[in-house]
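re: ur question from earlier - yeah i can do the single chain one, its not a big deal. heres the input i used so u can compare w yours
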Amino acid sequence: QVQLVESGGGLVQAGGSLRLSCAASGRAFSRYTMGWFRQAPGKEREFVARIRISSTTYYADAVKGRFTISRVNAENTVYLQMNRLKPEDTAVYYCAADEGPIPGITPGRYDYWGQGTQVTVSS
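and the output i got, formated as tokens:
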């Protein structure tokens, strides 16, 4: 089992930046692929970014070039730096952990989830 707690959400104007954090506790954090997802009202949960054990990253097209995912295994923490935010980035952002050997981008592939943190971008 691993427990995930997100923080860092808030209200920001378009063009601004936020950094989300996800603190993990429980089993060895370094063994998991870590992902960020988001869910806007009335929409399905969608993939944002993931980082593998090797620190290889992968991004959704909608955030590529604006968001950066990183991890610090010694701190059991994964980050999502979000720059040049847009109103369409408004959503609840979730951290997730995947203990499988082949990383994916669908929510069903992830085994553990945080409670989410709200990000609101005003125009």
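The two ends are 40 Å apart (CA to CA). not sure if urs matches, ping me
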